[in-house]
Amino acid sequence: MIEYLSRKVLHQLPAESAHDLSIKILSSPLSCLVNKKIHDNPVKLFGVKFPNPVGLAAGFDKNADAVTGLCKLGFGFIEVGTVTPKSQTGNPKPRLFRLPDNQAIINRMGFNNKGVDYLVEKLSNFKANIPIGINIGKNKITTNEKAVEDYLNCFNKVHHLADYVTINISSPNTVDLRQLQQQDSLIKLLNELKNTQLKKAKYTPIVVKIAPDQDENATRTIAQTIKKSQIDGIICTNTTIDKNNLKKENHQNETGGLSGKPLLSRSNKIISIVRNEVGKDFPIIGVGGILTEDDAMSKISAGANLVQIYTGLIYQGQSLIERINTKLESHMKNKIT
Fold it and tell me: What is the domain count for the chain?
């Protein structure tokens, strides 16, 4: 009942105001009101043990302000960020829009964050009870030719605090960022990151988050390049710029990345293509369009090892975490028997 009422109240506020209030609540003593037991359904991926396969996608807690509260919701892992070397305000407001008839969100936030040093300070004194991923990107003012420097800067500062690091080259809200998915740029970026990773005393897995909008051949090339670079995993997918076939409602024509239910089938198709390309043992995290436990199951069926939610949390509340875990645990038991 508390969860239902709080969601009702938050949905009366503008989308970004509701998000900011959620962060404040989860970073305050009030977070004790949402303390949930972590579902025990362990998965081991790229050397990291996840207590269950349901995580929070990047974008919700960009600055690691609310990790204390988020770790009480029952997630098996949390991904914070996207964080950039320097703080930046992001794109002009309004930049976050609910599409309730479509069970979707459009955002054009633009990597608004307080900078990597702030995030490092927040996490340095935090003892997590679940794995923490850190999602890193480049600053808007950094050209693609110098993007490698931004990613290396962030990786060098966060790797010792992260259970894994995500390379975000797929947000549609930073101009030309997705060009880094092109083969030559991608090879250069991943080779530099891999060389840096291998020099560290602590091995921190690196995963790459890819877009859902490229065609099948481009997706295969991206998957091949990531695997050949000996990067540890792939996250499929970021938000989409394809807004065809949306139900008519306010804000449906806003620019930005679309998340939620309309993304599910496209994201699942990308997972399937990537899985076929990289083989059965390569780690894949599935995200995009999970509003129900069956949606999560469809990502596992498509080839994902773990799943992440964000928009589903907004529309369905924290009970979605437990429902998904119960569904996936039942599936694993049936698979074993």
Answer: 1
Question: The domain that contains 13 carries what CATH number?
Answer: 3.20.20.70
Retrieve residue 92's tokens.
């002009």
Instruction: Report DSSP state, residue 173.
Output: T
Q: Which residues of 287-305 are buried (b: 16+ CB within 10 A; e: fewer)?
A: bbbbbbbebbbbbbebbbb
Distance CA 182, CA 155 (A): 21
Query: In the chain, which residue ranges form alpha helices assigned H by DSSP?
Result: 2-10, 15-26, 67-70, 116-124, 147-158, 183-199, 216-228, 264-278, 293-302, 311-316, 319-336
Whether residue 196 contacts residue 156, with contact meaning beta carbons closer than 8 Å, is answered with yes
**Rounded-to-integer distance, Cα 162 and Cα 168, Å:** 15
Residue 327 CA from chain centroid, whole number: 21
Integer distance in angstroms from the first to the last C-alpha of the chain? 37
Catalytic positions? 171
For 32-51, letters b (16+ CB in 10 Å) and e give eebeeebbebebebbebebb
Torsion 326-327-331-337 (CA) sign: positive
Question: Tokens 């250069």 — which residue?
Answer: 188
208 SS3 class: strand
Low-confidence ranges of the chain (pLDDT < 50): 1-2, 4-5, 337
Domain residue limits at 166: 2-336
Please choose, from the candidates 269, 164, 148, the residue with its C-alpha nearest in 3D space to the C-alpha of residue 210: 269
Handedness of CA 222, 228, 231, 232 (dihedral sign): positive
Residue by residue, DSSP assigns 269-330 as HHHHHHHHHH-TTS-EEEES---SHHHHHHHHHHT-SEEEESHHHHHH-THHHHHHHHHHHH
Tokens 């972590």 belong to 38
